[in-house]
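Minutes, project huddle
Topic: does the predicted pose make sense with guanosine-5'-diphosphate bound?
PN asked that the exact inputs be recorded in the minutes so nobody has to dig through chat later. Recorded below.
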Amino acid sequence: MRPEDTPGNLFVVAAPSGAGKSSLVKALLELDSRLAVSVSHTTRKARGQEQHGREYWFIDEAEFRGMIDRGDFFEWAQVHGNLYGTSRSAIEARLERGEDVVLEIDWQGALQIKKIFPHAVLIFILPPSWTELEQRLRRRGEDDAATIEVRMANAREEVAQARHFDFVIINSLFETALFDLKTVVHSQRLKYAAQLRNRSQVFAALDLS
Ligand SMILES: Nc1nc2c(ncn2[C@@H]2O[C@H](COP(=O)(O)OP(=O)(O)O)[C@@H](O)[C@H]2O)c(=O)[nH]1
Ligand SMILES: Nc1ncnc2c1ncn2[C@@H]1O[C@H](COP(=O)(O)OP(=O)(O)O)[C@@H](O)[C@H]1O
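Predicted holo structure (tokens), as shared on screen:
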């Protein structure tokens, strides 16, 4: 099966660091049992509460380069000085089984994914302002001042990429942004179902069977 023929829906969520993408995706997953998140590989060091295999597969650069050489990644990119990648094993089997998958990756990865999976739905999350973005990074309390500075500088370039995405959601009030995200997911499922000719497939896709 070619990647673009896989029956599952693929959602890609990108945002500048601190915009609230992980919080939104986590809340979405709690509400939507048909959605699974793909766990990426990274060379970044784990933060306090993060667990190997839950937030990320934390590996060193030699291991990461080995995976690149073996063609294990659908996409990978350097972001804020670290390497991040989506492995084939993280999403291929799920999509082939017809399950919906969400990727939380940066804009470079999102555009690579769109080339491989043209049906992927790209969603960009924006913060309400630069000031609020910086405050969220500080309030999160996970990064030192230098790291926050790099992320704020990179945010300018990242936000400029929003125009390549299918949807843009402003995460001002959390519940409103979550509702917007749910609507995009629901709408994509309905669109996919409407394209199916077989009645039972339509019902299954709508979860009405
Ligand atoms: N291209 C790509 N980017 C990723 C992947 N996983 C995470 N990222 C992105 O890397 C950036 C930094 O992520 P992270 O270190 O978790 O910091 P955070 O966004 O501040 O929580 C974010 O833009 C993520 O979306 C991946 O597999 N591929
Ligand atoms: N709508 C919101 N209003 C206020 N704070 C938020 C909102 N959404 C997320 N946050 C907070 O902002 C910080 C960054 O969110 P996070 O999900 O880690 O961002 P990202 O994954 O985009 O880097 C966290 O402390 C989170 O609780």
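Observations noted during the meeting:
- The first strand starts at residue 10 and ends at 14.
- Residues 14, 17-18, 22, 40, 44, 75, 77, 79-80, 84-86, 104-106, 108-109 surround guanosine-5'-diphosphate (ligand 1) (CB under 6 Å).
No decisions taken; revisit at the next huddle.
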